[in-house]
Amino acid sequence: MPEIRCSRMNETLGGNTPKSEAISVSRVKAIFGGSVGNLVEWYDWYAYSAFAFYFSASFFPQQDTTAQLLNSAGIFALGFLIRPLGGWMFGRIADRMGRKQALTLSILLMSFGSLIIALSPGYATIGVWAPVLLLVARLVQGLSVGGEYGVSATYLTEMASRNHRGFYASFQYVTLIGGQLIALALQILLQKVLLTPEQIQEWGWRIPFVFGAFLSVVALYLRKNLEETAVFEHQKRHSPSAKGTMRALLAHPRAIATVAGLTMGGTLAFYTYTTYMQKFLVNTGHLNKEQSTLISFCSLFLFACLQPVFGALSDRVGRRPILIGFGVLGTLFTYPLLHSLGEVQSPLEAFLLMMAALIIVSGYTSINAVVKAELFPAGIRALGVGLPYALTVALFGGTAEYIALWAKSIGHESYFYWYVNICVFASLLVYLFMKDTKVFSSLDDDFKEHHETPKP
Question: Which of 18, 93, 140, 387 could disulfide-link 102, Cβ–Cβ 3.0 to 4.6 Å?
Answer without folding.
Answer: 93
